[in-house]
Each structure stands twice: as C-alpha cells, then as structure tokens.
Amino acid sequence: MTESVIGIDVGGTFTDLVLLNADGRITLGKVPSTPADQSIGIMTGIRATAPDLPALKRIAHGTTVSTNALLQGRGGPVAMVTTSGFRDTIEIGRTRRMLPSVYDPSFVRPPPLVPRPLRFEVAERMLGDGSTLTPLDEDAVVAAARQIEGHARAVAVCFLHSWLDPRHERRAAELLRAALPGIYVTASADVIPEFREYERFSTAIVNAFLLPVMDRYLAGLDQALTEAGCGGRLVTMSSAGGTLDIQTVRRLPVRTILSGPAGGVAGALWVANAAGVENFITCDMGGTSTDVCVIERGRPSLVSETAFAGYPLKGLQYDINTVGAGGGSIADAEADGILKVGPQSAGADPGPAGYGRGGTDATVTDANLVLGRLGAERHLGGSIAPDRVLAAAAVARLAGRLNLGPDELAEGILRLAVARMAGAIRAISVEKGRDPADFALIPFGGAGAMYGCDLAEELGMNDVLVPICPGNLSALGLLASDQRQELVRTCVRALDRLDDGELAGLIAVQEAEGKSLPLLADLPAARMRFEHALDMRFARQAFEITVPLPTDVTTRDELRSRFLDQYRQLYGHVDPSGAIEIVTLRTMAIGVMDKPVPQPMTAGTGNPAAIANRAVRLRDKVTDWPIFDRARLGFGDRFNGPAIVEEANATTVVLPDWSVAVDRWGNLRLSRRT
Predict the structure, then answer these.
(1) Whether residue 108 is found in the same domain as residue 138
(2) 78 and 63 in a common domain
(3) Domain match, 100 and 48 both
(4) What digits encode the pLDDT tens for the residues 422-447?
(5) Residue 220, burial from CB neighbour count under 10 angstroms (0-12, 13-18, 19+)
C-alpha cells in the first residue's frame, strides 16, 4: 500500500469504519448512525478513526439512502414521458406476480411511482428491428414539459424499443432539461438498455425517483469531506459488489439499492478466500435487518432481475435476501396475544431500551441482555453502555401483557428472531435445491455472531466461521472491492446462426466502451479487467439464465455446452437438442484496486484462559459460562462451548456441543461436536 483508504458502512443503528493505513495496519471505528442525515454520522466516524484526513486517498462507502428512500417513499415526485399508447404500461405490468409474494394471498401491488396525471404521451415510434416508424414530435415534448413544471422533481423518459436506438429518448431528455432547469431527467436507455419495456420503464422510474435524494446526499457528503480537508476520491458500493465513482452514482442511484448489504458479501468473500472456504452462506445481522447470500465455489449468487419494495428492477446485483430481524427489532403482542418480533426496529434513535437513550420497547438486544448472552461490561460501539436494568424493565412490561415470565419471554423473542433469519436462509438455499448442510455459515454484523450456532442448529449446518472484526466486516469489504460497472447490450441471436467472430466483435465493442467509463479513466491498462456473461434461453422460453463467459469460450459448441450444464444444474433436466438463443451480452468493467492483505495471527497457548464467568439462561436453565476476550486469543487456541467470546464490536455465543478453534488468520472456526 502506498496510500491510506477508508471503508464506511452505514447501518440502521451504527456506522462502521475500517481505516487501512499506508503501512498496512487496520484501524476500526464505530459510531451511532444519524438516520436524518447519514453524512453527519459518516463525518463523525471519519474524524474519530482517521485523524489525518489529508492522507486519505479514497473513501469507499456503503449507504442505505436509496434503500430507505424507496422503502419509505421519500423520493420524487416523478413524471413520465412515454410513447403514445404506453403510459399505462407501468400499471398494467405483467400477469405474473413478482417474488417473494407469488403465493401471498394478502399481497397488494404497490401503487405506481408515477401517478396517471403525471404520465405524458408523445408521438414517436421505434420498431422492434430498430427502424423509425414515427419521428419524435419535439413540440409535444415541450408541451409536456410545461405541464410537468411545478409538479415533479424528476422526469423519466421511457420510449418503446429505445434499447435498440436511443436517439428519440436522448433528444426528448435534452429538450426536457432545457425547458425544466433544475429538474432531474433520466432516459431509460441510459439506465438499462435492455428489452422488455415494463421492467426497463420501472427501473428508469425508480432511478428518477431516487435522483433528487441521492444527488443531494452525495453532494453534501462530498462538500463536507472537502471542507474537512479530505482530498480523497469518494466512491460508493453498488448492488453488484463493486464500487462506483460518485459521478455515476449521482446519475444512476438505482444501482445502489443493495449498497450496504453488498459490502458484507464482499467482506465475507475476502475472509473466506484466505481461509480456503468456497461454499458458504453469509448472515449479516445489524440493528435493523438481516441480509443473507449464498456463495458456491467462491462465486456469489447473482441475479439480473429482481423486485424491491414491489417494483421490478433490471440490472446485475447480488442475490441477497433481507428480513426485518436485527438487534433493534421490536417485540410486541399481536391483537390476539401472540408474540411477534420485527420488522419494526428501534433503530439508532432511540435504540433498544438497554441503550439508555430513551427507548422503552423490548427488543432482541434487550432479550440478550436479560438472558446474559450480552454483557453490560463492554461499551457497544465504543460509546453505548448497555443497561441490563432498563432492558429487564422493558422485557418485563411486555411479559406482563402476555402473562409470561421475563426470562421465558426473552427466550421466546430470540427463538422468533432465529426463526425469521432461518426462514430467509431457507428461501435462498432449500427452496432453490441447496442443502444448508453442504455450506458453512459466516455470520457477521454487530449481532450476527451471537446467532451463528443457533442458526446452524436450526438449519442442520455443522460449520460456522466467525470472521475477524465481524462488527466491521461490511466496511472491510468495501476496501476489499474493486471498482466495477456493468455494461449491457441486448442482441437476440439464434445460437446456431451466430457467425464466427460475431461474439468476439460484440465483446470488443463492449470493452472499448468500458475503457471510456469514469471509473477506469485514471487507471493504467494493467489495472483494467473485463468479465463477460451471456443471458441465454431455449427458443420460445420467456426468460433467461446468465452464463459466465470465459475469454477463451467463443465457439457455438462451447457456448451450448456451458448453457446446458448450467440449465441442468438449476432445473435438474435439460433438452440437449433444443434450439438455444443468446439474448443479452453483459460486460463487467473492472478497475483493480489495492486491497488489504490478510495478516497471519500470532500463535496462542492452545488452551486459553477465560477472563470471567457469567450466568446465562439457555433452554430454561441458568448456568455459568466462561467469557473469553478475543483480543487475547491466538492461532491454534481451542476450547469447547458453552462459552462467550467478546470483542470490541461483536459478541460470539458458543452453544453447548460446539467447539472453537482459532485459525491462522484469526477467524473463529466453530464445529458441532455431535
């Protein structure tokens, strides 16, 4: 390393920081998040973790601004300009429901982000072969601008078949910007140039909805960094697992919907690669939610189409499943007297009752304090002193409403939280033909390591790897990530009719475009890489699978073989003689960054001594559990559960029948003894 860089992960309760110094040393930081303005918490954390601000050369951050804006409806308002006859496309949608609500009888589709009075039609028409049927009526675009003025903060331009030829969209966007200064304008072909109008229109509208919020936030953060004397380059984590430059994010905020969770997956990949673990499931539990993802053979699951808050989105991203179960998840009683946990969260302000910041609701964290799994001796995040008395009072109030004992209720709260998290993991494993027992579990986040053994037992898993600095792993993942931006080109071709050299030509065009992207502009050729994939399908099927494409695979027979292999793996059967189509070429432009280097740990004694004991209630029994200080553990140290391992920003609960071994890189390797 020749420069210092910092990774910042903004969570619902805490903002985590990891400073990688120029000499390779790592400094951890954690401060309470500031939901009203995330930049305040970020700047507080930077000043506390990196006193020498001018020495910072890169600031990589994961943010939930776009996520929260879409969930809470705080973007927009948005107007839409579209081809005559197509303004109701976003409301008609498709006959199929979007997962995960396909079998939910209570599911109600969210209202369109653009109300019907703000959808404007103009005469223009591109045909499916890319030719022009009707030229763009520029006067109609200007007339639409006059009606939009004063009613919207952003406009999405969504024309039919613009993925083939975006000229009409871009000209309309140009006219709207001239007529509506100060209004954000986005063209669908500049967001996601792929076919299928409904999904493309929806993605462009979500992007427009987020533009005012994200642009204001990033501009303010960039200004705060500059005023503080930090001359480093600000980059933001994307949903696809790489960082994007600030100019791109301010133009395409839709690519940051999973910015925060993606950093955790990247951190787990970095740890697992050093530890030699290829198949694992991540479990990132923070104060508000839990995010899970499957990694097979060292590659995270990716999807090119998903839905968020009920709105279809196109674009490559990690296949992350999220549930509302975190340390701050509030426990309450349903009207019929049944206990529920989450998805409402106490968040960062006021937080759980045990934080002593004014919270009165019983939360998952309060239950852990009551049961002794979480100690009151260490300050959480370096600044919050847990108060077991306040936590017990909150749990007791709810227990009284449910006619339960406080300890009994606390155990029930934890069982429900574990059940919600286990359900999220089953959705991406069992429900997709994967046996969790074939994977290791990597729990992290401020609360994840407390439930590693509980989840493993619930799911029949035998191995748990608690990584180094689990409470800050998402921030570390930001430092372990390259700069990445996806380029897509829909190019429907029958595989049997693909001309020799045609695919190589398309790839060359994509790579030339990638080299002109801002994220690669200042990098030497040696730091540029490109990864390619093809969306392929059997002819007459409606949807595709994404097939990674090594650079040496270009012949039709090789492409057929790779598609058939992946199709068989996904669905268990395949028609080897079926006609195959190529639909979309995906190119990931990568700018290779310096990354942290795993540091071997000093050997321990093999039989570490506990620093204390604490009474812990488990399954209706209270016993004394040894407490270990993780900072005092070394390579080769081993001990058996039950036990608790405490460190600055996380706690690991080791259940009975589990053993612990510290590996060469400082990770805790938990294994079931029975």
Answers:
(1) yes
(2) no
(3) no
(4) 999 999 999 888 999 999 999 999 88
(5) middle
